[in-house]
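To the team - KG4 complex, inputs and output below.
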Amino acid sequence: MYILGIETSCDETAAAIIKIDEKNGSIKPLSNVISSQIKLHAKWGGVVPNLAAREHLKNILPVIQASLTEAGLTKDAVDLLAVTHGPGLIPALLIGTNTAKTLAYAWQKPLLGIHHIEGHIYANFINQDYRKIKFPILCLVVSGGHTQLVLMKKHLDYTLIGETQDDAAGEAFDKVARILNLDYPGGPEVAKAAKKWKSPTNKTLTTKHVINFPRPMLKSKNFNFSFSGLKTAVLYFVKKNPEHLHDKKFIQQVAYEFQQAVVDVLIAKTIAAAKIHKPRLIVLAGGVSANHELQVQLAQAVAENLTDTDFSFPDTSFQLDNAAMIATAAFFRQQKIGSKNDLFSNWKTMSTKANLNL
Ligand code: KG4
Ligand code: ZN
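Output:
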């Protein structure tokens, strides 16, 4: 079957076609088109919801058309439409959901609303044999809006076992980037600066400060997180040394120390939760899953601390917001719903929710 996914929850207008082959359990993306609005929002230092909506409106139909063309298909081949219906920025979400609802009506196709984070989790199974997925799965969800540990005992079954009490991990990266005068979006820029500090070719360490950023809630007995105190610690440290903001090495070191503090906490909590819940697989999900240090260090921690637990993170093309992940999640949701629900009438009833829970 062919599923057309649509995603407009934040600042990427995305559409993708995935092909499901039930005979060999394959989930194959035939296209994964993403139109990014990074340049538009960069000068504001963050996403402006109404500007995002205007851009989505301009781009959504060409992006959907491109996803069909790239897949070599016409609308007639599409078996199911899937769209992110929350959580996210309402003006942005509305463009995706209203487009999907209109197409579902005009094309007379079934339609499913998908949770954005569910999509990020299912990004791990693109290009995999879905018959081999083993449960329970522990998901470390780390995006711009979410930081959660979620336990899945089976498909589409989510138990929240911990979450951030304040800032999300990606949000902390973005805010620290702003403190360090780095470009938007901040996560990749902080990671790039941190990598330069660690690089073995970086032999000209002119400023080596003693930095001990906190590891918030590391010792707490639950699986919750907190990153706002860490961000404030970075702010105070930089404020104490404002003249160094012109020094690239200083910025690189602060970025490195901040990133390591975040990674330490994320890993410690994930491993502690895994020791109790004994998952067969740990997955990373959300934009911060693109962080190389998090990928490498978590892989190492899983190998050292857990037996019989695998670890995965999505392929590069599916780590940040995309629509292939939405289409993939829709396949499993459609399988679960079966014929119990009339997906052909969803174009009438589907609503958009800014704070949708998993
Ligand atoms: O999932 P995503 O694309 O959008 C949301 O659903 O929020 O995640 C975006 C977040 C941003 O905060 C961005 O700075 C962060 O992911 N991010 C990173 C990296 N790449 C993206 N954070 C750390 N290291 C990265 N390499
Ligand atoms: Zn996302």
